[in-house]
Amino acid sequence: MSNSGSRASLTRDFERFKRGLPHDFPSHVRDSYRIDLSARYLGQPLPHPIGKGSGQLSLNSGQLETDAEAGLAFAVLKTVIAQDATGDQSMAAWAIHETKMKVERRGAGWTVTWKGRGWDRPFDEYLALVRAGRDLTRDRRLLAVPSVKYHLPRLDEPFRDAEYAHTTRALATAWGDPPLLLEKDFSPTLAGDRLADEKQQILRWLREVPQRIRAHGDVRLAMKLMNARFDDDFQREMMDAARDADALVVFNRLFDAQQGVAYGGPELSDRNLRVLDRPSDRQTVRPSLSGTGNIHSGRMIVEYALRGCSSVQLHTFFQLPLEEYSATDGSRTQRGLHALIFDPRDGLVAVMLEREAAGTLERRAGELHFLDLGLGENH
Ligand SMILES: Cc1cc2nc3c(=O)[nH]c(=O)nc-3n(C[C@H](O)[C@H](O)[C@H](O)COP(=O)(O)O)c2cc1C
After folding, report:
1. Which of 41, 50, 52, 54 to mutate to test the pocket of ligand 1 (most atoms within 8 A of CB)?
2. Whose CA, among 20, 98, 205, 314, lies 20 to 30 Å from 66?
3. pLDDT > 90 fraction of the chain, expressed in percent and rounded
4. Atom of ligand 1 nearest to the CA of 112
5. Crossing angle of the two packed helices 348-358 and 25-33, in degrees rounded to 10
6. Is the pTM of this model over 0.85?
7. pLDDT for 42-94, tens place per residue?
8. Cα gap 167→148, rounded to integer Å
C-alpha cells in the first residue's frame, strides 16, 4: 500500500477501533501497514514499546489482568520498600499511605498529585503480586517487573546489606526461573530529601547499587533514575555512573520542593528529552534505555525513541478522565493504547509513516521498524 493509502486506512482503523482494539494489534499493524512495532525492555523482546510505569496502576492482580487483556507490553509493579529478615526498613519513610490522587492539568498536559509513596501493605502481599506477575509473564500475556527501593546510605555509612540480601532473595524465590528482572527506584521524593543533597553521595549509589543487588541473585537490573535537583550536566553524570545497570529508566518525575510533591507534564518531558540529547563521553556499550515522562501520544514515544529508548513506561496517560480518550469502550489501558497507536495525526503508526514520507525512516525488506528510530542520526 502507498504511504497515502496507508494514511487513509489509518483513519478508518482509528474510527472502528474506538469500540474495541483488536487484542493482537501489533500483528494487525504489521499486516496492514508493514510496520514492525517490536521493542525491547531489559533484554526481553516486546510486541510493541508501550508499558506501564511503576505506581498506583499496578498494585493488584486485577489491574495486571486488565492490562494483559488490553494488550499492554509490560507493567512495572508498584515499588516495594526493602526490608531485612526482621522486617526492618531503613527507607520506611517511603512506605507511607495516602488514598487521594488528583489528576490535574499542568501546562498543555496533565499531572497526578499524590502524597503517598511506596507499597504500604505487608511484604508477603507484595510477593503474592510478584507471583501473579510471574504467571502472566510465563504465559506470555504481559511482562511484569517488580520494583524496589533499597537502603541508600550517606557517604560515610555502609550499605545495609541485610536489606539487599533478604529482599532480593525473597523476590527471586517468588519469581522462580532466573533471571529475575528488577527495577531499582530512585524516586523524585528522594531527590527532594536531604539524603540527595550531595552529588558524590548520589553518584556512589548509582555506581555501587548494581553489585549490591546482584550479590544476592541472578538479577537483570534496570535503575529508574530520579530527576536530581542539579543541572543537566549532572543528570548525564548520573547516567554515566549507572553504567553497570542493564537498563536505565529515564527519568522519574520532577520534585516541587515548595509544595513537597512530585509532578509531571510538559516540563518533565522537556527536561528528559533535553538531557538525553546531550552527548555522552561514554565509549563502552551502555545500558539500554526505557523512556518515561509525559508520554501521551505516539509522537512523544517517537521523541524518546529517537534518543535511544527501546521502550516507554507511562503512568499519567493511563489515568485520565474517561472523556479525554477518543475510544468509547474498553479499559483505560485499552483506550490509551488506541490513541497512542492509531491516532491518525499523532499516533505511532502515523508518525512513522510521516517520517517515511520525509525520508527520515526507511523500509528494510519492505517494513518500517520501531527500533530503527533509535539507530542513528535521525533527529
Ligand atoms: C501516583 C503516582 C505514583 C507513582 N509511584 C511510583 C513508584 O512507586 N515507583 C516508581 O518508580 N515510579 C512511580 N511513579 C512514576 C511513574 O511510574 C512514571 O515514571 C512517572 O509518573 C512519569 O511518567 P508519566 O508522566 O507518564 O506519569 C508514580 C507516578 C504517579 C503519578
Report:
1. 54
2. 98
3. 85
4. 31
5. 30
6. yes
7. 999 999 999 999 999 999 999 999 999 999 999 999 999 999 999 999 999 88
8. 9
